[in-house]
Amino acid sequence: MTINEQYPLREQISFLLRKNNIRPKKSFGQNFLIDDEALKRILVAANLSKTDTVVEIGPGLGVMTEHLARDAKNVIAVEVDEKLATLLKERTRDTPNLNVIRGDILQMSPSVFVPENAYVVVANLPYSIASGVLRHFLEADKKPQRMIVMVQKQVAENICASVGHLGILGISIQVYSDPKLLFVLKPDSFYPSPKVESAIIELTIFDEPKIAPNLIDAFFTTVRAGFRTPRKQIKNSLALGLEVPTAKTGEWLLDAHLDPQQRPQNLTIEEWGHLTKIINQSANLE
């Protein structure tokens, strides 16, 4: 079943919902994009070519999916909702370069379901799992080249934050990629309308993360400890998080040429990495 794309996106979505007796599910965080201009801007940002393989997460009713399939070489659409996945398979059965998979993306390894080494992720992510999905792909053995995703505006701002405002989420994304906030969407761009604004962000994935793989676990242990009490001085927060005396954390920070009295959000990723090495060296000597 196809629909006439000359109709506004809002009418296309309304038609598909009525025709198939579908009600958006809060449990899956379903908010369908109904803003024509926003769809165009997402497709422009994706900047796809006939050599690209695309992974779309949560294709929903498939309105954006059809555009992606026209622009790209292959599209792999992963949908957790069984009814929507079945409907999308039926609607796009004559689209040979589209593979619809019913499943939970957080339980799926890209190495298993993406045959190509290079791919792009495009997604309108449910707010509740957005951060988890981003980390899932960034920490995967087979990482995407780029990600163009829709998330809650506040989450987007945290992801794209600069030093002085950088928190755990921003660090966890910026270790692996260069994020950019592209544009903001009002709640009425979706049906049903969420209570907050959304934003489109683009992540350009690094060939290698900023932190060496053999240090990454210790790095995030240090970062989480440092943000245990983010409004306190970093020497106190680290002491609480790592369960060591403040004299020890102060010593580590001075050895790393860092001010023990500053706040954790003022450290760069490189400074967190250097601090992690200092802490590891200290632990090995004890």
Helical residues, percent: 40-55%
Mean pLDDT: 95
SS field, number of helical segments: 12
For the sheet with most strands, the description reads: 7 strands, mixed
CATH fold-type name of the largest domain: Rossmann fold
The coarse overall form would be elongated
Folded structure, characterized:
This protein is α/β, with parallel strands linked by helices. The protein has two domains: 9-205, Vaccinia Virus protein VP39 (Rossmann fold), CATH 3.40.50.150; 213-285, rRNA adenine dimethylase, C-terminal domain (Helicase, Ruva Protein, domain 3). The chain has helices at residues 9-19, 36-46, 63-71, 82-91, 110-113, 130-138, 153-159, 168-174, 216-226, 234-242, 246-255, 269-285; strands at 32-33, 53-57, 74-79, 98-102, 120-124, 146-152, 177-185, 190-191, 198-205. Strands 4-3-2-5-6-9-7 form a seven-stranded mixed sheet. A two-stranded antiparallel ribbon has the order 1-8. Helix 9 (216-226) crosses helix 10, helix 9 (216-226) packs across helix 12 (269-285) and helix 10 packs across helix 11. The mean pLDDT is 95.
Key terms for this structure?
about 290 residues, Helicase, Ruva Protein, domain 3, Rossmann fold, 2 domains, alpha/beta, single chain
At a glance:
This protein has helices spanning about 10-20, 35-45, 65-70, 80-90, 110-115, 130-140, 155-160, 170-175, 215-225, 235-240, 245-255, 270-285; strands spanning about 30-35, 55, 75-80, 100, 120-125, 145-150, 175-185, 190, 200-205. It is an alpha/beta fold and about 290 residues long. It is elongated, with a radius of gyration of 22 Å.
